[in-house]
Amino acid sequence: MKFQYIIALFFLGYSTTYAQKNISTEKATPEKESKIQVIVRVQKDKILLRWAPSDALAWKKLNKYGYQLERYTVTRDNKTLANPEKVVLAKVFQPEPLENWEKTIEENDNAAIIAQALYGESFGVTGLNQLQSIVNISEENEQRFTFALFAADKDFEMAKKAGLGFEDKTVLKNEKYTYRVSSNVPAEELTIQYGGVFVGPKEYEDLPKPMDFTAHFTDKSTMLSWNFKILAHAYGSYYVERSLDKKHFERITNKPYTSMNQENENNNRIFYVDSIANNQQYSYRIQGISAFGELGPYSEMVSGKGKSILKFVPHLTIKDFKDDKTVTLTWEFDEEGNSEITGFELNRSDTDDDKYLPVVKNIAPKSRSILYNKLASTNYFTITAVGKQGGNRTSFPMLVQPVDSIPPSKPLNLKGVIDSLGVVKISWDPNKEEDLMGYRIFKGNNPNEEFSQLTISPSEPNNYQDNVVLKSLNSKVYYKIMAVDTHYNMSSFSEVLILKKPDVVPPTSPLFTNYEIKDGRVTLEWINSQSEDVATHYLYRREDNNNHLIAVFEKKDNIERYEDNNSAEGSTYHYSIFAKDESNLTSDPSPEIAIFVPKSSVMPAVKGFYAQPNTTTNSIDLSWDYTATGVESFEIYKATADEPMQLMQMVTAQTKKLSDSSITINTTYKYAIRALFADGRISKMAFFTIKF
Fold first, then answer.
1. CA-to-CA distance for 298 and 309, rounded, in angstroms?
2. 621-624 — which CB contacts under 8 Å span 24+ positions?
3. If DSSP states are collapsed to H, E and C, what string results for 525-544?
4. Sheet of 534-543: strands edge to edge?
5. Would the N or C end of the chain have less CB density within 10 A of its end CB?
6. In terms of DSSP bridges, do strands 125-126 and 7-8 run parallel, antiparallel, or are they unpaired?
7. CA–CA distance from 278 to each of 14, 281, 305, 308 (Å)?
8. Cβ–Cβ under 8 Å, residues 401 and 377
9. pLDDT of the residue at 239
C-alpha cells in the first residue's frame, strides 16, 4: 500500500523538546556518537517517559529494530536496595504499523506528519523559506526525522504510537526508579548509546505559570511577547487566548504557538501580533503545553486598547524674541490634520530630556504660533498635536535662549583643608544666579605663576576635591575659582585660597664652610638650612662618644658663626649642626667635622740661666736649671749690642750648660734661652747680658 501525505505548514515558530537539547540532524560519525536522550514527567499516579535518538540515521535504524525499556527499583522507603530490582517494561518499542495510523491521520495533523515521515513514499514540505533555512535540511531522511520529532513533541499520544513515549502506571509512591532506554540495533550496524533518568513518584510538581507576559497596544494591533527561555524546560509551545470582557476567553491560535529562536542566546522572547479594532478593550493570557501534552496554568492577564495614530506631526520652525523674557514660536502642521485634533499644547523643559511639562494648553487647531513671556535663561520647547482619538503627536524639541551678557558674581568665602594623605577639599558659598551652569577651578603651586584649570567643563557643586603631592619643594598650594552661567558668561576670579600642605618633608641640612683655632678656642662658620619653614638650628659637639648640645640659634637671629670657648688644648672635637622646621621635623645632620685643638699656651721661663767669662779657655760659660715635665729641647740665642738675636745652638733636654768660644775681647754679649716641649708648647725667653 502506498502512503503519501504532502505537508503544508504555515506557522511563525518552530522548536522541539529535543532541539532544545541540541540534537543534531546530521548523520552519525565516529567523532559524533549516536545516543538516546530521555526526558520524564511525574504525574500524581504515573510517570511519563519520552525519548528520541540524536540523529536521523539512528532514528531510521531504531524504527526498524526498536527500543528496549527497563526499569530498576533503586530505593524503597528511603532506603537504597542492595540489588536493584529490574523489570523489562518492553523488549521492543517500535512505531505502530501503517494500518494503525490511517484512521488517526484524518483527524490529527501530528499523526499525519509522523505517518508520512515513517511510511510515506516521499516526503515533501511546502511552507516558508525561513523555515527551510532554520531547519537547514538537505536530505529526505533528515526531513523525516526532524518533522517526526516536531510532531511527537506536540502530541504525547502520537509520540507513543511512534515508539517514542511510554506511561508507567505501576509505580509506587515509596519507591524511586532508574529508567533505561537502550537500542536493539545490532552493534555491527550502528552503536547507539543508551539514555536514562532517575526519578520517583514523590517528585511530582505542578506545571509552572508562564511569566513575563506583556502586551503593547498600537493602531489596530497588539504586540504580545513573553520570555520562553525561563520555562523552556517545561513548555515547548503555547496557546494564546483573547477576551473582550475579561471573563470569557477563546483561543486565537488554533495550533500551538512556538518559537524559531530557542537556540539564539541573544533572543529569549516570543512575539505574536494580533489584529484588533481601535478603542475596544482586549484582554490576553497564554497557556503552556508540555512535551507530554499537558496544559499548564494560565499566565497573568494583560489588557488594553488600540489607538489610532495621527498622520501628521507638528514641527517648530521659527523663534522670534521680543525681549529677554518673551518669544513668539511658530510651527508647521498640515491643514488636513486640523479636523483630527482638538488643538495644540506647548511644552517646556530646562533640559533636552523627557521632563517636558505643558505650559500653554487648548491652543486652537488652526493656530500656528504662540507668544510665551516667561523665558528662563535656557528653554527647550515642543508642540503637541492633541488627537481627538487620543493619538497625540509631538514635534522635535527646539532650543530657545534669550541673549544674556551679564556674568555671574564672583564666588565668595573660598575655604579648604589638606589632610595627611594629600587630599584637598575646598568649598565656597553657592552663587544665587538661576542660570548658573557651574564653576571652573584653577590651581597654582606658586602665587606668581599662571594658574592651571583643573575642570574640563564647569563643575556644578560648590565644592571640589583635589590631590597634591606632599613630598615636593613647595610647601603651599593656591586655588581660585570662577562662576560660569549657561551662556558661558564668566565671573571674575575669587580671592586666592592659600593652603599649607601637611609637612612631611624635613628641612635641608645646614653646611659647615670654615673653622679657625686661635689661642685654644675653636671658631665655626656654616650656611643655615635653606628651607622656608626652618625655625631653629642646633649645634652639637661630640667628645669621647658623648654628644652635647652647645648652642641653639633661632631663625630670626640669622646666626651662622659660633666661637667655642670651652675647648681644651690637646683635645679632638666632632661638630655637627641640625635644622628643625615649624612642624618639628629635623633635618639630616650636616657633614660632621673633626677638629684637633693643639696645645699653644706659653710656659714659664727657664730659671737659673747664668753666664760667666772663662779667661782660661777664652770663652763664656752658660748654665741653667729647668725641671718642667715634657721638655724636649732647649734653644740658645745670642746677640751683640748692634745685632738682633740669632739662634746659636739647640741642645737636648738633659743638657744644663754650654760654652761659647766665639767671642771677642771688650765686647758685650746678650744671651737668651727657652724650652721646647714635646706637645708643641714653648716657654718664655730668659735673658742674660755679659761683657767679655
1. 32
2. 621/657, 621/658, 621/659, 621/660, 622/657, 622/658, 622/659, 622/660, 622/671, 622/673, 622/688, 623/656, 623/657, 623/658, 624/656, 624/657, 624/673, 624/686
3. EEECCCCCCEEEEEEEEEEC
4. 546-554, 534-543, 571-581, 593-597
5. N
6. parallel
7. 31, 8, 6, 7
8. yes
9. 92
Q: How many CB atoms lie within 10 A of CB 161?
A: 22
Residues of the chain with pLDDT under 70: 1-31, 123-139, 259-266, 473, 600-601
User: What pLDDT was estimated at residue 126?
Assistant: 53
Confidence (pLDDT) at 135: 47
* Cβ atoms < 10 Å from Cβ of 610: 14
Q: What angle do CA 115, 118, 124 make, to 5 degrees?
A: 80
Q: How far apart are CA 302 and CA 290, in angstroms?
A: 23
What is the pLDDT, as a whole number, of residue 570?
75
CB neighbour burial string for 506-517, b if at least 16 within 10 angstroms, e if fewer: bbebbebeeeeb
Please give the single-letter amino acid code of residue 258.
Answer: T
- pTM for the model: 0.47
Please list, residue by residue across 463-502, b when 16 or more beta carbons sit within 10 angstroms of its beta carbon and e when fewer do: ebebebebeeeebbbbbbbbbbbbbebbbebbeebebebb
Amino acid at 288: G
Cell of 425: 577639599
The answer to whether the beta carbons of residues 507 and 579 sit under 8 Å apart is yes
Q: Specify burial of residue 14 (Cβ count, 10 A radius: 0-12, 13-18, 19+).
A: buried
* Cell numbers placing 170: 505501576
- Long-range contact set of residues 473-478: C-beta below 8 Å, sequence gap at least 24: 474/445, 474/446, 474/501, 475/500, 475/501, 475/503, 475/505, 475/532, 475/533, 476/500, 476/501, 477/418, 477/424, 477/443, 477/444, 477/445, 477/501, 478/443, 478/444, 478/445, 478/446, 478/447, 478/451
Query: Tell me, what's the pLDDT at 132?
Result: 52
Q: How far is the CA of 131 from the CAs of 11, 13, 107, 127, 135, in angstroms? A: 9, 8, 25, 7, 6
Handedness of CA 190, 193, 194, 195 (dihedral sign): negative
CB atoms within 10 A of CB 453: 10
Interhelix angle for 140-154 vs 109-119, to 10°?
150
**C-alpha 446 chain-centroid distance:** 34
What is the Cα–Cα distance from 681 to 50, expressed in whole angstroms?
124
Give the integer Cα–Cα distance in Å for 625 and 217.
138
* Cα pseudo-dihedral 403, 405, 409, 410, rounded to 10: 130
Alpha carbon distance 235, 237 (integer Å): 6
**Angle between helix 140-154 and helix 56-65 axes, rounded to 10 deg:** 70
CB-based contact 578:550 (threshold 8 Å): no
Per the CB < 8 A criterion, the answer to whether 37 and 22 are in contact is no
pLDDT at residue number 34: 92
- What is the SS3 assignment for 171? coil
Residue 604, Cβ density class (10 Å: 0-12 exposed, 13-18 middle, ≥19 buried): exposed
At 654, which amino acid appears?
Q
On the 0-12 / 13-18 / 19+ scale of CB atoms within 10 A, 10 is exposed
